[in-house]
Amino acid sequence: MRGNSNQAPAGLRIYEYNKSTHAFTVRGAHTPTVHSWGGRGWPISSTLLYIPWSNTGQLALFDISNKDNLPAPTTFPNSGSANTQLLVIANLLFTSSHSGGHFGLGVYDISTPSTPSLVYHKPLDATVVGLNRLTVGGQDYLAYTANGRSAISICRLGNL
């Protein structure tokens, strides 16, 4: 904790839990040079970890295969905000995005996890703060809301 802030210092820390001592030990860490991470929900794909990087509006991709020595992340533009949540369905990563001066819902193709690509952007008047998958009658739906809005949008997700 810093000062009177309720926020932890910026960065990523990998912990290892010891069942016999019930202790957590830091194995590796990375502290960004630019401000802080943002977002909620960090999907892991194999040995890759996606985190929205709030202050730069990017999606950060960490290779966590060597948990003792974390390299700096690879970053991809057009994603991330202080309230971003990530959700993975099939080979798609849903998150907030920023394109053409507008925040909105972004869909990344992560069929090759090390090179996610933004394949869809739906402009919204605020960032996406909640994402959820619903299955009704065998059909998948994406439910989301935007920051400061009381409405929930539900989109049918065709064949994934």
Description:
This protein has 160 residues and is mainly β. It has a single domain, classed as Methylamine Dehydrogenase, Chain H (7 Propeller), CATH 2.130.10. Helix content is 0%, strand content 49%. The protein contains no helices and 13 strands. Strands 3-4-5-6 form a four-stranded antiparallel sheet, with no helix packed on it. Strands 7-8-9-10 form a four-stranded antiparallel sheet, with no helix packed on it. Strands 11-12-13 form a three-stranded antiparallel sheet, with no helix packed on it. A hairpin with a 6-residue loop joins strand 12 and strand 13. It is globular. The termini are far apart.
Q: In what order do the strands lie side by side in the largest sheet?
A: 3-4-5-6
What Rg is obtained from the alpha carbons, in whole angstroms?
17 Å
Strand and helix order = EEEEEEEEEEEEE
CATH superfamily: YVTN repeat-like/Quinoprotein amine dehydrogenase
CATH fold call: Methylamine Dehydrogenase, Chain H
Q: Roughly how many Å apart are the termini?
A: 42 Å
What class, by secondary structure content?
A: mainly beta
CATH class: Mainly Beta
Mean pLDDT, to the nearest integer, reads: 78
Quickly count the helices: 0
